[in-house]
Amino acid sequence: MERVDMETMVAHLKLLANEARLKLLGLVAAQERSVGELAEIMELKEPTVSHHLARLSEAGLVRMRREGNVHFYALDADRLQQLSRDLFTPEKVASLAGQTDTGAWERKVLRTYLDGERLTKIPDVRKKRDVILAWLAERFEHGRRYAEREVNEVIGRHHPDYATLRRELIGARLMERESGVYWRVPAAT
Amino acid sequence: MERVDMETMVAHLKLLANEARLKLLGLVAAQERSVGELAEIMELKEPTVSHHLARLSEAGLVRMRREGNVHFYALDADRLQQLSRDLFTPEKVASLAGQTDTGAWERKVLRTYLDGERLTKIPDVRKKRDVILAWLAERFEHGRRYAEREVNEVIGRHHPDYATLRRELIGARLMERESGVYWRVPAAT
DNA sequence: CATCTAATTAGATGAACATTGAAATACGAA
DNA sequence: TTCGTATTTCAATGTTCATCTAATTAGATG
Questions:
Q1: In what order do the strands lie in the sheet with B181-184?
Q2: What is the pTM of this model?
């Protein structure tokens, strides 16, 4: 499988997302045709057709053969099939996000609700609250076991309502507890 | 296989041929996300994101769920996969031409080289010559057998150089001959 | 060489579309 | 009800792109 980045992927889709070019591909699929011929059939001027053929040619979708000063174009069916196959594989779709910085929003939430180390407010919206809780969980060491009193103390440094936040941390499965002992849950991934 | 005409096909390709929309699909593929969240991540304003999501939504590619006045969008993976599968099947490409009048050019060639029943000139370019020869072949009846003298006479009504044209008709496999007898070859389809 | 034809290139125009700020809407909270 | 927030709708702006005419290139023909 050929690696295709976002940029070329969009370029290829743009190339195909045009009625004139799609028709051209269809016309040269059955048999080779000259520019003038295509212009006549499609009711477009030669320069227009020439322009589209040039773009298709760059992408390797059509081949050109000259006879005198007549240029005959024909479809490269293999290339088209390969391109359409590569364009939308499931993992391609999944990877679309990968090339984007997904952390920006989380950082903004933190900036909004944190004043230094101090938590100014607990967000009502679940997703924002999750971000805050994840940040809060990082205040605890991995592998270490905490008494409830210690947990309250750590949270208390950042917000007075340590009881609520402690329960939320458990609910969000960022921490676990058993018989009064708490510990931080390792990150999933 | 769902039938898709040229118009909707182009519309779908146009929808996907956009970096912002592709990124959006990728972002909502992994988990549902709110408009503001997406705007922040993509460094676009909310109206822009809202607009793109609306278009994706029309095509059924994303689903929306509201929680308070927060709108969460998520990918409809099945729909996307179905769309990408339907978009470029081999027979689809072949049929692209079907919706176009391919006869226009042939008619123009005939207009150019014919003056009524009279052939004004024999085209030099192979393709045009083929059109003229096909027209000429139609002057002969299917199934009937002609002597060479008769062939010359029929052609002679349209152009003085019957010898050349007779040979060309054979070369183009529009007519055949055996021991001095000629007949018209049925169309291949 | 001059001439003709086919195709491409260059430059201009217009339509489609992405993006935005401002206004309107919907909803929850006080 | 009034306020605050998230989203959508509206209207305006700027950019991209398809198409065209005019000019140029390249090949064939006389």
A1: B145-147, B181-184, B175-178
A2: 0.68
